[in-house]
Amino acid sequence: MPDSANGSTLPIMVGAVVYVRVSTKEQTENLSLPTQLRACEEYCRRQGYEVLERFHEEGESAKTTDRSQLQNLLTYCRLNKGRVHFVVVFNLTRFARDKYDHFALRSHLQSLGISLRSATEPIDDTSTGKLMEGVLAAFAQFDNDVRSDRTRAGMKAALELGRWVFLAPIGYLNAPRSMGRSLMHDTERGPLVRRAFEDYATGRYTKEQLLKRARTWGLTNRRGKLLTSQAIGVLLRNQLYAGIVDVPEYGVRGKRGDFEPLISDELFYRVQAILSGRVPSTAPRQRAHPDFPLRGFVRCESCGRGLTGSWSKGRSEYYAYYHCRPGCRAVNVSKAMLEGLFADELALLQPTPGYMRLLKESVLRIWKTRKAAVREEIESAERAAKAIQQKLDRLDEAFLFERSIDIETYDRHAEKLREELTLARIDRHSGQLDELDVEGIVAFAERVLPRAADLWVQASLEQRQRFQLLFFPGGIAFDGKGFVGTRVTAQAFSYLREIQTGNERVVDQTGIEPVTS
Ligand SMILES: [Zn+2]
Prior knowledge:
Elements: E1 14-23, H1 24-27, H2 33-47, E2 49-59, H3 68-79, E3 84-89, H4 92-95, H5 99-111, E4 115-118, H6 127-134, H7 139-148, H8 150-160, E5 172-174, E6 183-185, H9 190-201, H10 207-217, H11 229-237, E7 244-247, E8 252-256, H12 265-275, E9 298-300, E10 308-313, E11 318-323, E12 332-334, H13 335-347, E13 350-351, H14 353-400, H15 407-430, H16 433-448, H17 452-458, H18 461-471, E14 476-478, E15 483-484, H19 491-499, E16 512-513
Parallel strand pairs: 1-2, 1-3, 3-4, 9-14
Antiparallel strand pairs: 5-6, 7-8, 10-11, 11-12, 13-16, 14-15
Bound molecules: zinc ion.
The site of zinc ion has 8 residues, from loops.
């Protein structure tokens, strides 16, 4: 950490470098270099990282062997060890070609005290986090994780639908299943809770005064005890009374509940304004955590920019909608409508049994042809790795036994050699990865594709965003009424096209047939 000239300590600055890569094909789509760079910089800004350097790779394909920028990045990280804390990438698929690259690079960076961060994907321990770490190869794993995660995922899915799955707060009762809603009003305490909100909203009572009043009405908690001062504070801040399901621990924010709210939005926000010491007449806040998975991902067909999402206030409710940016009025569509259309779009991706068989066959055939070709690459990479390892050994010898170099020289050379070794090992493993990818592609097509729409609808905001990118890596355009020129661009298929070399023919995209009813 640098000290300023006058000797006072500067706030701790966390340094980050940004690495983006783009193929020529993507230049024309919305994953262009500036888009990726902007996303990474925005991420850094949100996280409070200082961007020290930017590296961008422009290659024909993700399989490119040109790693000059990656090399530069690693060198920069080594020379600036201690200053760089994070390497921020747009997404992991673009950073590393595959699982092995990813882990090799990550552990190399770790040895320099650097963590890898993705601007578009949280890298965490959930089943989704694992999915993104393994990218293509982990599709099968994802499926397993989702299964074992079912209880929690089930609760989360229910919450996403506005179903309250926990114990009802004072004023509500958990409704019997047959009612079709999760909560109902407690005829005894419900009106008292509403009255507490109404009284406090007048601005004439302090919390303590309100508590006294509530006690005289006989407002008690579930066990029949009088409310405490803390309890009344919690009660007044509980969005559930306005019918909003908000459970951050489950990643569920600002969902409209499936039950009748006890109080109106206006009343709730007026109370919040008073609680936070703002003027009571302050306009209701925008919903704190809007949930717009398609924001930025769906482009306006008319002007080409990504749609954004907003809440707008109707007579008694807030309405969520997607719209284009200022200056363009081509798109203005309700959230439910656009997301429904998108789920329909995903539901069209139904692989036929014939397609699955052909897919499997061709993937295996291509893989076998390729395997022979990469064997040689592997061998030469192995030789390179071996040579570097020998140099490292000699360096150790020089330092430990002959004492012919000092520790600084040793560190400098050793780190550089380890970096070369990492790169060589990545090359060494690149040939083996196709095997993993074959399984990944087949598992992907078999398991995920047939229920893509369901999965998307039930997923959390972050999961949805990652999911939709897998199917439509270049985003999707909307003309105000429907999606335009939707093509099947699932990773599995673009991957197949990518490894198709000349004489090999790959299953045609028409193997996927729209479901017609
Ligand atoms: Zn537009």
